[in-house]
Amino acid sequence: MYGFFHCFEYLFLIGIISFAIGRMFPKKWFDYEMFPYKPFEFEHGGAFYNRFGIKKWRDKVPDMSRILPGTIPEKSLSSKITAEQLDTLIKETCIAEFIHTVLCILGFRCVVIWPGAGGWIVSFLYMFLNIPFNMIQRFNRPKLARVAEFLRKKEQGAGTFEPGLCKRENQ
Questions:
Q1: Which letter does DSSP use for residue 31 in this model?
Q2: Are 91 and 23 in contact (CB under 8 A)?
Q3: Within its chain, how far is the Cα of 139 from the centroid?
Q4: 8-21 confidence digits (pLDDT tens)
Q5: Backbone angles phi, psi at 135, to 5 degrees
Q6: In 3D, which of 1, 18, 2 has the Cα closest to residue 107?
Q7: CA 117 to CA 121: how far, in whole Å?
Q8: What is the C-alpha to C-alpha distance for residues 90 and 30, in angstroms, rounded to an integer?
Q9: pLDDT, tens digit, 9 for 90 and up, residues 31-82
């Protein structure tokens, strides 16, 4: 059990540090139209994640914008949101994906902290607990990008506003 508690302390610490570092990253470093954030062809604009029932569980996982309000931009979309605000939110999805990917990798240090099967089990469990967060980012990003593009056209006077586009799919 000694190794388990050291792994838990380590994972808790890297989670806090990674969150803080993620808040400090300049958003200009993250371009959702470039690898690795650009949708892969097999994702079909996020539809791939429907196979995992993502619409049923994505709002049930912990969300730092709800846990620590004010540290991350609000994720609810209103009819008053601008394309620029939406671009910021999209970049936040890239940062979240990056941080959760780094956490997956750093979690394997538990193999060193707790040598043997226990360290491997904790490392893989931690990785699998972070993967759903990446899935949520990759599911939401293409939809947010489409709404942002629509809003850019609307703001330039090239379209009409359809509030239904800003509603989050919960079914």
A1: -
A2: no
A3: 9
A4: 999 999 999 999 99
A5: -60, -40
A6: 18
A7: 6
A8: 9
A9: 999 999 999 999 988 889 999 999 999 888 887 766 666 666 666 666 778 8
Q: Measure the CA dihedral 140/146/147/148, to 10°.
A: 100
130: left (phi over 0), alpha (psi -120 to 50) or beta: alpha
pLDDT digits (tens, 9 = 90+) for 70-91: 666 666 666 778 888 889 889 9
What's the pTM value of the predicted model, to 2 decimals?
0.80
Q: Are 86 and 151 in contact (CB under 8 A)?
A: yes
Q: What is the C-alpha to C-alpha distance for residues 6 and 161, in angstroms, rounded to an integer? A: 53
pLDDT at site 66:
67
Tracing tokens 């059990």 back to the chain, one arrives at 1
Q: How many alpha carbons lie under 13 Å from residue 158 in its C-beta half-sphere?
A: 6
Contact residues for 118 (Cβ-Cβ < 8 A; gap 6+): 3, 4, 7
Are 145 and 38 spatial neighbours (Cβ–Cβ below 8 Å)?
A: no
